[in-house]
Amino acid sequence: MAHPTASPWRIWLLPLSVLLGLSLTLFVLTCLADSSALGDPWALFRLVIHPNPSAAANTLGNAGEIVAAVLAIAITVVAIIVELASNRYTHRVTELFIAEPTNFFVMSLFVVTAVEALWVTMIIDQSQGAGGFMPYISIGVTMTLLTACLLILLPYFNFVFAYLNPVQIVDRISTHTLEVIAHKGGKADIDERKREASRGVEQLADVAVNAMEHRDKGVSMASVNALKQLAIDYQGVRAGLSPAWFRVEGEIAQNPDFVSMDAAVLGEVAQRRIWFEMKVLRQYQMVYAEALNHMRDIAYVIAINTRLLAEEAARQNQTELLHLCMKFFNTYLRAAINAKDVRTAYNVFNQYRLLAEALLSYKRGAYAVEIARYFKYYGLISFSASLPFILETVAYDLCTLNETALDRSSPVLDDLLRLFLRVDKESEGEVQEASLRGVRKAQVKLATYYLLKDDRTRARQVYEDMAGEDLTRLASIRDELFGVQSSEYWEITDRGANFDYLPKERKVKLAEFFSWFPGLPVGRSGFVSQLPAAPGEGASVEFIDE
After folding, report:
1. Pick from 220, 219, 174: which is nearest to 197 by CA?
2. 302 closest CA partner among 341, 351, 335, 338
3. What is the DSSP secondary-structure string of 192-245?
4. For a disulfide at 351, which of 177, 307, 425, 519, Cβ 3.0-4.6 Å?
């Protein structure tokens, strides 16, 4: 979505109207004051139409110098501003600015005025008698052009600053790139279009990275959002592109994002017709790596936009793009874990889970199960890397995903549950169970949800998975879950939710669930509830705040 731009009224018409009005008002008032002493108030105004030859010649003689000086000032100021913007964001700024027709018009106005003043001065003949000649029309045109040059200077600077607004630069690059892609050209220019499209994507990423270096978060986010929108808009035009567009060969194959790839991988990218999407997401990967432990908000936006792009792919049945987005989500998680950026991983998992929930809505449960497997894999990797909180985050996200699957009666519900119950099972070596309390808490929360929805069968599966746990440890987990009273976390977080919170109706089910464990120590209050026990089960215990 394009950002709002300043209207021509505010950039050009309003300043010109104000300056022209002030100039005319001042001129008329001073002329009236001066002509009052002559007895003929209109004498000076007649000189405007038929000026004195000597005065006209002197004025036009200086006009060329005035215009040249003003033009020099304008070029100097603009060159400095454009160079600063180019160095700060991307060198494409200079190219776009020079190609802007408004600049050609303004500079042409100055040049034409200077040339006109020079030649009109040459044809003024001040000789006495019949040989004299005064080009009144030419003088009037020249003075009008000179006035326009002086009046337009400030509005032109206004235009330059508005044009070089970095957010507007981002929009122009994005719009130009999409226009290049959608252009209906022959086979001869297909390579040039691919090169220009690739260059546009790279420049948007450059703006994001350069803005991050200057702590300009707003511009970085605008660039990241522009890349996402460009990829989504591209889906609307890709069906009309020729087969040659999707081949990865020539200069595109030598692009930095593709040159290191194996030939077989490049062939697969070409076969799946996703080189442009790969290019966009590779730029995301680069910006994401720069943002880790540095400007996390940008990393969060990249995760959000990757999810939105994946959801759009699911809506349009673009399975290749959906699969590619999932690969990049996995890449984001790996990078965050390697950088030990727990907070970023926490938010990326949140967006990845939201994608899985959306896929359940689109009847793509197999993809949701695949994402759950990745959750388990990266959760255990984080645990091995001494980042246990990430594994706990994985557990609570899988709990939420299972709840969503139950609400939507997904056919993959049992697959998701089996994966969730194995999150705390290491594939190699022994798990330090003391560090996995969060996983068990999440599993208990899911059991209470099953009971709330009258799904005792799956609640019993959770119980059977926990049947061998130490009873003292289970009792402490029970007490901790029951003791949490606030749904909001006590610090500012992006999710804002307290993982351990259970509403009252689920705390009742919590007591029922733990009543299934024989010999479990009584809670702090020691109050035994009146909940009926199921056949073969002990009495349930309800815990009340002290």
Report:
1. 174
2. 351
3. HHHHHHHHHHHHHHHHHHHHHHTT-HHHHHHHHHHHHHHHHHHHHHGGGS-GGG
4. 307
Q: What is the pLDDT of residue 430?
A: 43
* DSSP code per residue over 256-321: TTTTTS-HHHHHHHHHHT-HHHHHHHHHHHHHHHHHTTT-HHHHHHHHHHHHHHHHHHHHTT-HHH
CB burial readout 208-221, b (16+ within 10 A) else e: bbbbbeeebeebbb
pLDDT score of 130: 52
Q: What is the spatial distance between Cα 440 and Cα 469, in angstroms, rounded to a whole number? A: 10
Cβ proximity of 421 and 465 under 8 Å: yes
pLDDT score recorded for residue 59: 77
Cα 248–Cα 249–Cα 253 angle in degrees, nearest 5: 80
SS3 label, residue 21: helix
Taking the whole predicted model, whether its pTM rises above 0.85 is answered as no
Give the integer Cα–Cα distance in Å for 387 and 384. Answer: 7
Tokens of 162: 């508005």
CA 81/CA 74 separation, integer angstroms = 11
Residues ≥6 apart with Cβ < 8 Å to 443:
395, 399, 420, 421, 462, 465, 466
Q: Which residue has the tokens 């289970």?
A: 474
Amino acid at 248: V
In sequence order, what DSSP letters do the residues of 128-185 get, joined into one string? SSTT-B--HHHHHHHHHHHHHHHHHHHHHHHHHHHHT-HHHHHHHHHHHHHHHHH---
Inter-residue contact 442 to 416 (CB < 8 Å)? no
Hey, what are 486's tokens? 């606030």
**Closest C-alpha among 261, 369, 281, 371 to residue 325:** 281
Residue 259 to residue 126: CA distance in whole angstroms: 74
Helix (H, G, I), strand (E, B) or coil at 497: strand
| SS3 of residue 528 by DSSP | strand
* Nearby residues of 261 by Cβ (< 8 Å), 6 or more positions away: 269
Element (H, E) at 458: helix 456-466
Which of 167, 177, 176 is CA-nearest to residue 207? 167
365-400 core/surface letters (b: 16 or more CB in 10 A; e: else): bebbbbbbebbbebbbbbbeeebbebbbbbbbbbbb
pLDDT number for residue 216: 87
Alpha carbon distance 156, 12 (integer Å): 7
Residue-wise pLDDT for 388-420, tens only, equals 889 999 999 999 999 999 999 999 999 999 999
Q: Which residues of the chain have pLDDT under 70?
A: 1-7, 9, 35-48, 126-133, 185-188, 425-435, 487, 489-494, 496, 523-546
The encoded tokens of residue 204 equal: 């948007």
What is the crossing angle of helices 53-88 and 92-99, to 10°?
A: 150
Rounded distance between C-alpha atoms, residue 86 and residue 218, angstroms: 17
Which residues does 377 contact at the CB level (< 8 Å), separation at least 6? none
Give the pLDDT confidence score for residue 37 in this predicted structure: 65
The SS3 of residue 336 is helix
